[in-house]
Amino acid sequence: GTFSMAATPLLTRALHKVPLLSTGKIAVAMSGGVDSTVAAFLLKEKGNDIEGVFMRNWDELDETGVCTAERDFADVQRICRHLAIPCSRVDFVKDYWNSVFSDFLEAYRRGLTPSPDIACNQKIKFHTLLHHVRQRAGAQYLATGHYARVRAVPLRRYYTGGPTETEEAAAASATTATPLLPAAAVAATPPAQTATEVQLMEAADTLKDQTYFLSGVSQAALQAVVFPVGHLRKAEVKQLAELAGLPQVAARKESMGICFVGKRRFAPFLAQYLPDQPGPMVCLDSGTVLGEHRGTHLFTLGQRARLRSLTQRYFVAGKDMASRTLFVVPGEHHPALLVRQFWVCNLHWSASHPPPPAPHVTTSPTCLLPRVRVRCRHSPASVACSVFTGLESECAANSNASEWSGRAQELLGCTPLSPSERTQLWSAYSHWVQQHDPSAVLVQTEEAVRAPAPGQIAAFYLNGACLGSGTISFTAT
Fold first, then answer.
1. Which residue, of 133, 140, 255, 394, has the greatest Cβ tally within 10 A?
2. Catalytic residue from among 67, 80, 87, 259
3. Could you tell me which of 315, 308, 269, 268 has the C-alpha nearest to residue 292?
C-alpha cells in the first residue's frame, strides 16, 4: 500500500472489491469531498495508476453569491499531495452553461421541474470529462465517488433481472475481473463477441444510493467507469478518510446544492435569471383565490405553498402557464396530488438497445416492461409499475387534437376540467406525444405516486439494477 499502516479489517474488506486495472490509467474526478477522496485513496492502495482531476463548471464572476470553486481546488491539491498522486484541473464552464444550465432555465420558464444533476452527469461528467481524460490525460477509465455499482450481465438478461445465481458465483470467483468492475474486461472486447453489457446497480448503502442521478449515463460510459465506494456505507467511507490521514476531509460538511451551482437559496438564485411573474393562487376544490404568488416557475407539484394569510397547509396541485394560475389543495395527500399514470419522454436506456417487447404480448398497447419499479425523485422509495408503448390505436386523434395537446402542455398537474375534457386532453396528448417522440412510454403504477412533476426524471429499476430513465411529460390521476 501507499501508507505504512496496519491493514485494518475495514480496509482489507474495502480493497477486496476495488479493481486493479493493469490495462490503463484511472482518472479520479475529485471535488474535495470525502467520497471522491476515499475513491482515490482505495484505488491507489490497490496499486492502480491514478491521477486526480478537478472540474470547474461554474464561473464565479456570474454570481453575486459565494463561489467555492477556488477553495475546493485548493482542497483537492492538498489531498492529492497527501496521497502522492498528480492532479489537474479542467474548465467546463461554457459546456455546462450550454449543455445543462440553459436547458435548466428554459424548463423552469416553461413551468417544468428539471433535474440538472442528472443532465450534468449525462452530458458533462460522464461525457465531456470522460472524453477529456481519455484524449488529454491518457486515462482509460474514470472513477468517481458516487454511491453506485456496476456489473456485467448477458445482454439477453439485461431487462429481465440480470445473471443467474450460478453466473454471479462464477463471476465472483473469477480472478480476471472483480464483481464490482467487470466493465474493464467488457471494454477490452468487442460487444459482438461477448454479448455482455454493463449494468448500473444500486449501492450497498441504500440511503446514499445515487443511481437515480446516474440513470442517464450511456452504456459506453458505464464500460469505462469505476465506483470504488459503491460497496461501502457512508460511515465506513468517513472512517477510511481518517485512516488515510485526512480527518479534516472526513469532517467536511456535505454539499447538497444544485450540481455545481452550490448550496444557495433557490428563489433569489433563480430570480437573477428569470423575472417574477405574479399570478393568482387558487384553491382547486373551492375555486377561491387565496392570494398572489411570485411566479409559477418557483413552485413544483406537491410543494408546500406558503402564504402568510393561510391558516391551513396548502400544496401545489397544478399550474396553468397561460394564465399564470397556481392551483393548490389542502392537505399533503389530497387526491389531486395522487397519480397512477404518466407519460415519460426522451427515454434513455442504460443498455445499448431498448428493451424488446414482452414476448407473450401481441396486442396493442405493447407492454415493454411488465413489472419493474419506478422512482420519480432521488429517494430510496419506488413503486411497482408496468411500462407500455404503441398506444396509437387507444388514442385516435379527435378533430381538435392539436388544440388539446397544446392546451395539455400549458396545464401541468391537476387543473379544474370536467371529466370529459380531461379524457379528451389525455387522449389528444397521448396521440401527440407518440407522433413527436417514438421513444415515449406510458407508465402505470400499482399504487398512487405523490405529485410526479412534468420535467422530473422517472428512473426504472429491476432487482437492484437501474435500467434507464426519461422525462415525465404529462400525468393523470
1. 133
2. 259
3. 308
